[in-house]
Amino acid sequence: MQTTTQVRSRKSRATLLVAAFAIVAAACSGAGDGTEKGDGPPEAVATGPAVPNTTFVTFDGETASLRDFAGEPLVVNFWASWCPSCVAEMSAAFKPVQATRGEEVTFIGVNIQDERALAEELLITTGVQWISAEDPQGELYVELGGLGMPFTIFVSPAGEILDAHNGPLNEAQLRDRIDELLLG
User: Fold this and answer.
1) How much is the pTM?
2) For residue 111, how far is the Cα from the chain centroid?
């Protein structure tokens, strides 16, 4: 027989899990490419001075960390095929911006909690060509402060996190952040 404390503890964990899922679902459910009427810029979150040394596996099977890209300005985008805002952002923002800034900035797309086949299919469909990596348990996402999807960080060549955004970016917002933070 379970004690009242055990039942309350289980209910509290379940409530927290449902609340976390609701936040992610809400972030993914509407915002398309971030240009709908009433949409403002994505919310900035607190950033740390340096990227963590947490490793991830690329779609090519190599183990890497963000620190391996020292000397390069980075745009790191966390996405999933099950997130409508992520899908829209990839086509509407990342593909066109990468076409004009891809030689100056390294783009890394980190697929989070997704099926690999679905992720690879989406990359083909959208035509986005970035370094693709997996974060199956969302460890790097959480460590960097991700709260919603998509989630994008901007990293200086020195490995400092300059900005982080929870939510979709449209093409102009992404281009402006890159120009201001990484190329300006």
Assistant:
1) 0.76
2) 8
